[in-house]
Amino acid sequence: MSKIIMNHGAGGEIMQEFLAKHIVSHFPKAGADVPLEAMDDSAVIEDIVFTIDGHTVNPLIFPGGDIGKISVAGTVNDISVMGATPIAIACSVILEEGLDIEIVDKIMESMGRTSRECGVPIVTGDTKVMESGALDKMVISTSAIGKRSKLLDDDLKVASRYRKVKDRWCTDSNLAPGDVIIASGTLGDHGVALLSFREGYGFESEIQSDVTPLNKMIAEGLKAGGIVTMKDPTRGGLANTLNEWCSKSHVEIEIEQASIPLRAGVISACDLLGIDPLSIGNEGKVIIGCVPSMADHVLKAIKRTPEGRNAAIIGTVKEGKERVIMRTEVGGKRILEPPSGDPVPRIC
Amino acid sequence: MSKIIMNHGAGGEIMQEFLAKHIVSHFPKAGADVPLEAMDDSAVIEDIVFTIDGHTVNPLIFPGGDIGKISVAGTVNDISVMGATPIAIACSVILEEGLDIEIVDKIMESMGRTSRECGVPIVTGDTKVMESGALDKMVISTSAIGKRSKLLDDDLKVASRYRKVKDRWCTDSNLAPGDVIIASGTLGDHGVALLSFREGYGFESEIQSDVTPLNKMIAEGLKAGGIVTMKDPTRGGLANTLNEWCSKSHVEIEIEQASIPLRAGVISACDLLGIDPLSIGNEGKVIIGCVPSMADHVLKAIKRTPEGRNAAIIGTVKEGKERVIMRTEVGGKRILEPPSGDPVPRIC
């Protein structure tokens, strides 16, 4: 009999196959604008953008953040990368009997602070308790809803001046040859900070998680105009995001290794641990696809925000096979494979 | 240092105090129509009804249902009791490494079937895996959104012919003296079925869980007109629901013990186990408050549906102290206390 393995929840190809076969296949198809089968960051139904995420990060509190901050920022970001404005959050908290209430207070305080920071209120919730031993301390599932705004309409109007735009939301299938790919900042920080802290490697003194809500930064990008798609590269990192885009938009993406923002500490930690920084999850970054003529303008707008100060153009979209080609720093080319899963378990 | 106890998630007074002090207090206040602080079945923001529930029921599959059916029916019911029409569900599934995939398939199939049955699609989701030993098999958190419908407008218009109605949704604070209380069917079935099955008492041969989506039955009630509030008596059962209404609507409620629908098997099981069927959770029942002149009409409409065939008028709302008085079958009166929690743990 087949059993659940860690990679079934690790965001890569193995998870995609598992979800398609054992979860999504059992559910009836809905007439949503962006349906479940699209497996995008959020669904859209009757112009309401709707998303949910379960959070199992271990440990609960880590350098740069905690499960409460991730759970608010994560759903706010999932709504925002569709081009929508998040308006409310719902949270389901499941606690282990015997957990210190002081820890609950710390995590809930952090959720409240993050909610205040991004201006998206937590409007409803539910709390359950499982007996001691039935759960490792705490999990939090958060859902969020968002609405269409004039910002997105104007943004897509700008993009439409240059080429036909397929979807009216920033979906994974909205890229076309010629589009430019922007990363909003350094990649791999979250996964490396968490792994290092957990395993005691010592890199955590310099590398902190990047977890943060990105709705304000994204609004600045949309104001610049011409963005056609966005995704937050969480589980499976940049490699997963770009490969999903290639297969859903039926394009090839070419990226320049030298232009990918990476902290020196992340590079050396990944070298030492034998993991790829491009396959590790991030919690405060967004990858953007925009029409070529607006790329510099969008980049500038993003760079003016605190969350986007290290943003960079990292590649372009081509006609070709559904794959990601990376031009290496030594002048070669290699395929950036879709990861089977995230190399670091329970990072979100 | 204070620790989490099972009753912090058991739906009664201890939970209410814990939530107010350690969860809700940390979150910023929102300008929602029905805000977090109202602690109602759902929140309402910009006319979108929004709810979330975590599901930790043990065992995953039990007589009459399973965690998948509960997770869909539960959120659909939380939207419906506000008087709204549920339009979409989001699900967050968290799995334990090593769990049989066959069980996942069974649960997801049940979610799909329930979603099809009630006509509310699952439009988005998320799956995580925790390592073996970090979670007892599986938890599912589901969120749902709903919209205002003409049905609710018309229903409240009818109620307004007889008296002023405070809220424009079916909130806990909408009752007034004179209103009639209806129970949609037999109480205690879910909790007794689950406890008996789990502990091997043998009652489960006759008592099955009542878990079911109630949106269609509720729509029939609204069509009759005059309903001002509804609540599904889950954790803490009828005793919890009525006491919440008393304190939020500032009224006294008087119920007739003899008119409360209870299965003989539930009565004898509860006698034997020393638990109160009125404090046990239900998953397929609704308690309704409506204006007196429309009570018989609403009752008939509910009784015509399969889920409401055992519905009965069980009491009336009075001016008085914020408490529930029960007229006993032997002619006496006693106060139906708000339960400290549900006597049966992990029933939903």
TrEMBL record, chains A, B:
<comment type="similarity">
    <text>Belongs to the HypE family.</text>
</comment>
<dbReference type="InterPro" id="IPR036921">
    <property type="entry name" value="PurM-like_N_sf"/>
</dbReference>
<dbReference type="GO" id="GO:0051604">
    <property type="term" value="P:protein maturation"/>
</dbReference>
<dbReference type="Pfam" id="PF02769">
    <property type="entry name" value="AIRS_C"/>
</dbReference>
<feature type="domain" description="PurM-like C-terminal">
    <location>
        <begin position="177"/>
        <end position="324"/>
    </location>
</feature>
<feature type="domain" description="PurM-like N-terminal">
    <location>
        <begin position="40"/>
        <end position="146"/>
    </location>
</feature>
<dbReference type="InterPro" id="IPR011854">
    <property type="entry name" value="HypE"/>
</dbReference>
<dbReference type="InterPro" id="IPR036676">
    <property type="entry name" value="PurM-like_C_sf"/>
</dbReference>
<dbReference type="GO" id="GO:0009030">
    <property type="term" value="F:thiamine-phosphate kinase activity"/>
</dbReference>
<dbReference type="InterPro" id="IPR010918">
    <property type="entry name" value="PurM-like_C_dom"/>
</dbReference>
<dbReference type="Pfam" id="PF00586">
    <property type="entry name" value="AIRS"/>
</dbReference>
<protein>
    <submittedName>
        <fullName>ThiL1 protein</fullName>
        <ecNumber>2.7.4.16</ecNumber>
    </submittedName>
</protein>
<dbReference type="InterPro" id="IPR016188">
    <property type="entry name" value="PurM-like_N"/>
</dbReference>
<keyword id="KW-0808">Transferase</keyword>
